[in-house]
Design goal:
Aspartate Aminotransferase, domain 2; Aspartate Aminotransferase, domain 1; about 400 residues; alpha/beta; four-stranded antiparallel beta sheet; 2 domains; homodimer
Chain lengths: ~400, ~400
């Protein structure tokens, strides 16, 4: 593959117009959309309207006239289309951590038994499963093999569909079938898969899921998460954080708590409108793209990038499965000096991120990257690893956000 | 009091410059800052920078270089100055409902006993206290007299310092002294008092509090809340929603959960930066104002407004205590046709809000209102109530947000 080959692929790319919809800075190849998606131009416009007109001029009236009150469910219904859920099964609200807390705690009320999470999954998932188990007086089980989380004595299992480091993707349908056999309630963390890979919760039989708004959905730093509960399960799950927006009729200000019968029982406080408006813009943009074209381009970009990096830098060991069905859309490489490599790449305009220990992570997002982008990124990483500059870099504490 | 008198007071007002710092629309007198504070101009500027430069251009790098990572504690320390707390005792995070859930649930672990809330308080407070009690297998007690919540068999009492309807203010120091005697952990909901009245948590001996960012702090629609835990109590309270930001070193991505020793153990997920930036701007603006001048002007405005409304509209019955020490900064009037009056006022440019049943609420905020504003608002309400137009208005379902 040459740069000219990449140029030819870009010329034929049916999605090439999407990249211009984002505010991608000059001189930067951004391979960290898996951590913080870039700014869509439409988001800046929508926020400007929200701030100056809806908030500034219309003030409190916007709760009714600008659709603020319906924002969590309206955005939820849009996200539902991205993840194979039905309308009325998703809300956008709170942080990923808070949403996971709600669903794991609620699902645990359905039966006795342990709460399980992946031993090497994203820290929040494990911390939450462990602390919720302690709060409820249940055993906690950390599993290295996801399938082991599904056992007759496990009440709730929290699994990430795509691993935040390796990018390895679980077989959702197969694990749901196993969960049905053991009676385990499976809560899916879609943080690294929603917007990155095609998801069909209904086809897989998945009934409980949470995902992140600020990664592939391009919702902005710390964007609200989304929470999915299959309709038959909604009325069976208690609203664990029963703020006034969980009420069937919040604006009655009734002293008696009567939870909403549908998905809004999983809301809590007043919706964060600035954050939700940005999330909605990102989701709207993603819904414009053809899902099949996104998947195909994502696969082609990923293969181009990992092939080129592996060819130029044999010392970088790919830790992500090559099979598109078995991975998300980021790529993880292991190297003893991964931190220095990531830092040197950033200095040269290739933004990836580092994860402990010795892991360099690169997000390959088909909406915002061209074939030339990933070809050039691989070339720059090759220069870094095959040059001497990166050896001089000092390892520094801290890092960038997942 | 004549309009000329009000003009003279404005000319002498040392805070008169503050009003111009807000985007108050022409032809509107906004008496609903107690529900959604208006837009400070500086907020629009800060958000523009956050969106275009920090997110758009600097992308993931802003977590480190733009102070995003420290935002919850940095803003918390600023809010601490408004409520008489020490640095390191406050974080800005999540919604009011989620923050209240965290503190009430955590405080309940400290001792056995009932969980109490005000029977006629804001719905979230009662719903949360009741559902948390059920989750923990504790008795729930709804009290009509706040003092009754402090009893030897009550483990945690959740009390609003200022009532969201009547505006009546509790004596925080007296109730804390009583709580100390009964061993009850008192959680204060400061939603209708923070930014509205001078608060000194340390002087009152208060150790647990939550407040709202989108009312008097002018943080924008659905702004993050703040959460206060006195330093000696921090290490004793479990982080109930133990997301990765509650960890002592979140960026280690350690599989073992080791909660932060300080206030950040009450964080959960990634901070919502758009929302936090707006909140910080509102708080910064409030810190520019002299607290004593704010209090004095607030008292004078409130008296002018309620006197003029009562004089012009004897049928509107004031339900807020007149004593400045016994109330917040909003005024509540009862009238059988309060909904129609509020709607007719809004049509004439006076924005207040309605609360069931038969209650008209008006926020009197000294940062954003002039003496002429409140004089004119009272005159317009007088025209409404003494005219015939409002009688024709139909009562409609729904309302505006608290």
């Amino acid at each position: 593959m040459t740069l000219d080959d990449a140029r030819a692929l870009d010329a034929d790319d049916p999605l090439r117009g999407l990249r211009d919809r984002f505010a991608l800075p000059e001189g930067i190849i951004y391979l960290d959309g898996n951590s913080l998606g870039p700014l869509p131009w439409i988001t800046a416009e929508r926020l400007d309207d929200l701030v100056h007109r809806q908030w500034g001029e219309r003030l409190i009236r916007s709760w009714n006239e600008a659709g603020w009150t319906e924002a969590p469910t309206r955005i939820g219904d849009k996200i539902a289309r991205l993840i194979g859920a039905a309308p009325g099964e998703v809300v956008a609200t709170d942080s990923t951590s808070v949403c996971l807390f709600k669903l794991v705690s609620a699902a645990a009320t359905l039966r006795d038994g342990a709460i399980a999470a992946q031993a090497d999954g994203f820290p929040t998932d494990r911390y939450l499963a462990q602390t919720i188990a302690a709060q409820l007086g249940r055993p906690f089980r950390a599993v290295t093999d996801a399938g082991a989380a599904l056992a007759p004595d496990v009440a709730v299992a929290l699994l990430a569909e795509v691993d935040y480091r390796s990018g390895a993707r679980l077989d959702m349908a197969a694990l749901q079938a196993r969960a049905a056999a053991t009676g385990t309630h499976l809560v899916w963390d879609l943080s690294h898969s929603a917007g990155a890979v095609p998801i069909d919760l209904q086809a897989a039989g998945a009934t409980l899921a949470v995902g992140c708004g600020y990664k592939y959905l391009n919702g902005g730093p710390g964007a609200p998460a989304f929470l999915h509960v299959g309709r038959p399960l909604q009325a069976m799950l208690p609203p664990v954080i029963a703020g006034w927006w969980a009420h069937d009729r919040p604006f009655d200000f009734s002293p008696e708590f009567r939870p909403a019968s549908g998905i809004t029982r999983f809301l809590s406080g007043t919706p964060p409108m600035l954050a939700l408006a940005a999330l909605e813009a990102g989701v709207d943009l993603m819904l414009e793209a053809d899902a099949t074209q996104l998947r195909d381009k994502g696969t082609a970009l990923w293969t181009l990038f990992t092939d080129e990096v592996s060819r130029r830098c044999p010392s970088l060991v790919l830790r992500t499965p090559r099979d598109p069905a078995a991975r998300g859309s980021h790529a993880l490489f292991e190297h003893p000096h991964a931190l220095a490599i990531v830092r040197a790449g950033i200095e040269r305009g290739v933004i990836g991120d580092y994860r402990p220990t010795g892991l360099a992570r690169f997000g390959i997002t088909p909406m915002t990257l061209s074939y030339q982008d990933v070809w050039r990124a691989a070339a720059i990483l090759g220069d870094v690893v095959n040059g001497e500059a990166w050896r001089d870099l000092r390892f520094q504490a801290g890092g960038v956000v997942t």
